[in-house]
């Protein structure tokens, strides 16, 4: 069934250029199985791999994954420590695979709070894949949508203060050019696993006209079939962007 649906989507010509996923439910998945929460995060890595593989096969332009929010520092110190170590380990293990598959990796967010060891690993991974021309995989780490908008405005405010531009020159497009996703296609589809129906401060600026897909499936169980279902739902949506159906179809 997955193979058939995949073929239909490829032939439809109505795939999103940019998909973002809030990968929620790792901890609850582990707890339900009587395991420590961190085991859920480790199990979720396999679904990351599957999602990247499918996005590459379908020739999507960009896939952005919410790995660690700016609010996640509030979690128990042990869990945060394990997440940081897991991030380092996954980068070390997966970057060569990504490079072989022509995937360009970038990490978006305020990385200054990370250890020097982790920041160096991120820099090396980004450098290795910088010239790849396939899927752009963005990992949002210590990222928050409000932070992203704030830092974009701060950059523009600095230019105004330095006399490079007037405040009246600031437009939506200029703000967009200073967000973390400035080089990516417009965000078409946001998926959230885990049952909650909110976007949790993720890509706030970018999601103005994004289609939203929520599923009760916990992230470690979010397999290829579930991803394809979300993409098929997107393919059936009439996107009007403020226009009428008649205008869109004409």
Write structural notes for this entry:
This protein is an alpha/beta fold and 250 residues long. It has a single domain (15-144, 187-235), classed as Undecaprenyl pyrophosphate synthetase (3-Layer(aba) Sandwich). 47% of the residues lie in helices and 14% in strands. It contains nine helices and six strands; from the N terminus they run H-E-H-H-E-H-E-H-E-H-H-E-E-H-H. The longest helix has 24 residues, at 77-100. The radius of gyration is 19 Å and the shape is globular. The two termini are 34 Å apart. 33% of the residues are buried.
Largest beta-sheet characterization: 6 strands, parallel
Query: Would you identify the regions where 5 or more consecutive residues have pLDDT less than 50?
Result: none
> What fraction of residues sit in β-strands?
5-15%
Number of strands: 6
* Category from helices, strands and their pairing: alpha/beta
The CATH superfamily is Decaprenyl diphosphate synthase-like
CA(first)-CA(last) distance: 34 Å
Which CATH first-tier class would you pick?
Answer: Alpha Beta
Calculate Rg over CA atoms. 19 Å
CATH domain topology: Undecaprenyl pyrophosphate synthetase
> Helix share of residues?
40-55%
Q: Helix segment count?
A: 9
Q: Give the SSE order as H and E letters.
A: HEHHEHEHEHHEEHH
Number of domains: 1
Reported CATH architecture = 3-Layer(aba) Sandwich
Mean pLDDT: 93
> Which outline best applies?
globular
């Amino acid at each position: 069934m997955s193979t058939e649906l995949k073929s239909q989507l490829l032939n439809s010509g109505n795939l999103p250029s940019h998909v973002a996923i809030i990968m929620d439910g790792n901890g609850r998945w582990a707890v339900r199985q009587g395991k420590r929460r961190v085991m859920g995060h480790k199990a979720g890595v396999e679904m990351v791999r599957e999602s990247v593989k499918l996005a590459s096969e379908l020739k999507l332009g960009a896939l952005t994954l919410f790995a660690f929010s700016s609010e996640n520092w509030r979690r128990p110190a042990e869990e945060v420590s394990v997440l940081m170590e897991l991030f380092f380990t996954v980068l070390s293990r997966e970057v060569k695979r990504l490079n072989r598959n022509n995937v360009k990796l970038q990490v978006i967010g305020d990385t200054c709070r990370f250890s020097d060891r982790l920041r160096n690993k991120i820099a090396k991974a980004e450098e290795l894949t910088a010239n790849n021309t396939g899927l752009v995989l963005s990992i949002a780490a210590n990222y928050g949508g409000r932070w992203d908008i704030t830092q974009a405005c701060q950059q523009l405010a600095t230019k105004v203060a330095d006399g490079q531009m007037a405040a009246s020159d600031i437009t939506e497009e200029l703000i967009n050019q200073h967000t973390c996703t400035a080089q990516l296609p417009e965000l078409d589809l946001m998926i959230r696993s885990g049952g909650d129906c909110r976007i949790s401060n993720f890509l706030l600026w970018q999601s103005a006209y994004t289609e939203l897909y929520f599923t009760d499936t916990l992230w470690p169980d979010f397999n290829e079939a579930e991803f394809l279902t979300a993409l098929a739902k997107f393919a059936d949506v009439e996107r009007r962007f403020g226009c009428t159906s008649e205008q869109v179809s004409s």
